Amino acid sequence: MKTPEIQADVYGMRVRARQNAAQGAVTSRYSAHLTTVLKRLNDALATELVGVLRYRRHHFTARGVFSPAVAAEFLVHSNEGLAHADHLAARMVQLGGEPDFSPDNLVRRSQAEYVEGATLAEMITENLVAERIAIDSHRDFIQYIGDQDPGTRRLLESILAAEEAHAGALAALLKDGCAPGA
């Protein structure tokens, strides 16, 4: 049998769950500043989408003796970036926001730049710089959220881990000489 304290808490949860039910995942105990979280999620979405486009371009335009392997790596990163963008957009919708996919706004909101790069080394470097920017941006966002929004924090932590892996792979390509000014 349940104790009276637990029963009262269950009753309170049931009452709170019915209040403002149309707000979906954002309950009365959501403690993050929702407007800021949604803005930062949209900025992260823009950063991912600009990265997807940059990686895609590099995948198709990579030239040189090492280009098949590097181009394949670019495609993997592009596809993973698209999955990250999808997860970020889904999280915004869960929180009652709207993801901004407008091409006019992407470059303006993205933390990373869209730089084409003329050589394989430049392409790898530009993608590595963008990954490093995303890593710092996600770390800052995770720190900002703290324990106020565990769902968004966990999503960002998983994306952060992937960005760190991407940065490591790109740095290894440069270090191993897979793009000697090619």
Automatic annotation (TrEMBL):
Where along this sequence does the record place binding of Fe cation?
Answer: E48, H84, E131, E163, H166
The UniProt entry, under Pfam families, shows: Ferritin
Coiled-coil stretches noted in the UniProt entry, renumbered to this chain: none
List, for all copies, the residue spans of the domain called Ferritin/DPS.
Answer: 39-176
GO terms under cellular component: cytosol
Report whether Lyase shows up as a keyword of the record: no
Molecular function as annotated in GO: ferric iron binding; ferroxidase activity; heme binding
Tell me which CDD domains the record gives: Ferritin_like
UniProt keyword annotation of ATP-binding present: no
The region annotated as signal peptide is none
Set out the biological process GO terms recorded for this chain's protein. intracellular iron ion homeostasis
Q: Which UniProt keywords apply?
A: Iron, Iron storage, Metal-binding
InterPro entries given in the database record: Dps-like, Ferritin-like, Ferritin-like_SF, Ferritin_DPS_dom
- Recorded protein name is Bacterioferritin
